[in-house]
User: Fold this.
Amino acid sequence: MARIIGGIGASHSPTIGYAKDTGKRHDPAWAPIFEGFDVVRNWVNDKKIDVLFLIYNDHVTSFYFDHYPFFSMGIDSEYLPADEGGGPRDVPPAKGHLGLSQHIAMALTADEFDMSFFQGKPVDHGFLSPLSMLGDENGPWQGQVVPLHCGLLQLPIPTPKRMWKLGKSLRKAIESYPEDLNVAIMATGGLSHQVHGERAGFINEDWDNEFLELLEKDPQKLVDMRLAEYVVKGGMEGAEVIMWLIMRGALSDDVKLVHKQTYAPSVTNIATLVFEDLGPAPDVAEVAAYREHMGYHLAGAETLAGTYPFTHARSQANFRLNSFLHDLIIPAHRQRFVEDFDALAAERGLTAEEIDLIKNRKWIEMIRRGVSFFMLEKMAAVIGVSNPEVYAAFRGETLDQFLATRKVPIKYSVAGGSKVKEMDKA
Assistant:
């Protein structure tokens, strides 16, 4: 089974990535940043950590206010560096652990956390600043990650207690994963800072020291604090340290402080922290019961003939093909799909198999492969095929045969404008 070896706390200020990318290691003004992360890196390597569950907040780069989730977990095989305005950092993509991410997704959903999930999204400094420091002169850190994005930059946001509860569920999720893995929970953000308004530049090192002490010895006091108290003590943006409560909640009560350092050179008090988890191994019977709890609501659905549940595994494996068809909602993409398909497919990197599936309208084969029906519905609308014609193809029937099984033999589509009127006349 997977084991939680410990927890890491680390600031994610862009200062950190800037220092690394511009070679500031031996500059006295910047050296303390590197020294703190050296300890973290050495601990990660010494403990042979396989996977980091990395908690961060995106800075309105990949997650914009048009759809801004509280908790969104990555279920992808890799995470590319984001362009935050001046071009992406020159760092390699982080490698995702598909099995663990999909397992945790099921677990947190079963525990009634309203999760969302992402793939194909690049990650910004909230994720990359601390992660990139785990590599050394020989290259990047070689482990895998499971990212959890927390939406904290548009109010209202989750409470400290919600973060703590998520951490408790996260522990059960990880310990119930059957693969033999060493896992560390890495919380990022903070410490005290404010980067907007007349209070910009605010730092409170006394509060930062108190926060770290309470996190180790009395985290319940932090759980019970109101968000407004975090803002007053640590700055509006500094309130993101509530993400560290997810990490602490995922650890046992019995932790050993391995490392703690803060350094406040400019606008953010930059911190690194390592806890080792000294708690007992999970009870085997409790783990088995939790796995049953995770699968309770979907047990048996996978056995229904002619039914293909659209799981995270199927979604991730077919993300490129689903994305290609989803983009048919964009007029320019739609026009090229009809008029210049081969060139468009080549540009988007479709394989020969994927091209064949689309060109030859292999509807049921696409469903069996892992294409969402709602992508096929869009494709059908573009090429002038009604929904019942697609349903008939799924069943291996003619349209007339399918319509004969309906109370009213009608055709319809999601197409709009002149397109739908053309289809109605056909």
